[in-house]
Amino acid sequence: MTIEKIKWGSAPDGKEILKYKLTASDGAFVELCSIGAAIVSVNVPDKDGKLADVVLGYDNPLSYFDDGPCAGKCPGRYANRIALGHFTLDGKTYTLPINNGPNHLHGGPAGFQNQVWESRIDGEAVEFMYFSEDGEAGYPSDLKVVARYSWSEDHVLELTFNAVSGGPTVLNLTNHAYFNLGGFKENVLGHELCLAASEYLPTSETLIPVGDSEPVAGTPMDFINPKPLGRDIKADFPALKFGKGYDNCFVIDDYVPGQLRKAAVLSDSASGRRLEVLTTQPGVQIYTGNWLEGCPEGKGGRKYHDYDAVAIECQHFPDSPNKPEYPSVVLREGETFSEAIIFAFSTI
Fold this sequence. Notes:
Largest sheet: 9 strands, antiparallel
Number of domains: 1
Number of helices: 1
Oligomer: single chain
CATH topology: Beta-galactosidase, Chain A, domain 5
CATH architecture: Distorted Sandwich
Low-confidence stretches: none
Helix content: under 10%
Number of strands: 26
Strand order of the largest sheet: 10-11-12-13-26-22-21-16-19
Strand content: 35-45%
CATH class: Mainly Beta
């Protein structure tokens, strides 16, 4: 395993943008960058041993700032949506920027995903650190977040988050990488997805959960057994109409805080590539890239189109700060937020 540190450019404010290349002995490699602690590329072999990049991204580092897809980055302070940009904690109401219809999304326009994180090589891993000040984007209390990535010889990309706060706050962290296991030769509607989730969270038209989870059985939301992403994506079903495809949080079966559970398996029969996703978090948001059209120019001058890639975002539930019945997202002084996401690549 080798790790290379590369100066990739400069941010508009002059901060240095760094990229890291982690390469296994067989040549398979991952690239990360300090904008939003992002996964820039994942180059893994197909069934014939040919490497291809299976992650959506850009050649120009400046395209990672303020991009609509949030490609490969770690949004925060709260990944996903908070209804109407308001939540109450310990009797005090906090107001957040509105940037997704009537709601707050991914920490707002100045979220973690649009910041240059501090970074370093630490042994056989790369660590990114971001310090969020009390009041940033309306959130209470100082917060220090560390995202640590490692890449193994057997093509496992492990991401761990650790965070501490100077006082009470809310926190939800994920990675927003988009995958196309065929190397973007076709869109992902032919990819098969299997989820360890027998329930999902129905939402309003603005994609805010409306309450209790419901069974996926008998609905287009059922991925208990593998099926192509495109099989039911045009079904006459509220969840699919609201988001123009899948953009929904699924409840991972048998969730136990702190324990790794298999969340998803994505496979592409044409290339023979397979991705298994494990996490310690209670939910997984499946987003089929329904609004990729018009996003920044991709690698090699590629133009991305709707459904060209799928995001598998392991996280806590949307709008949890306003729903006390959901697993808690409150972090208090003296506590440590600690979660993991594992992306394990193989061939069928």
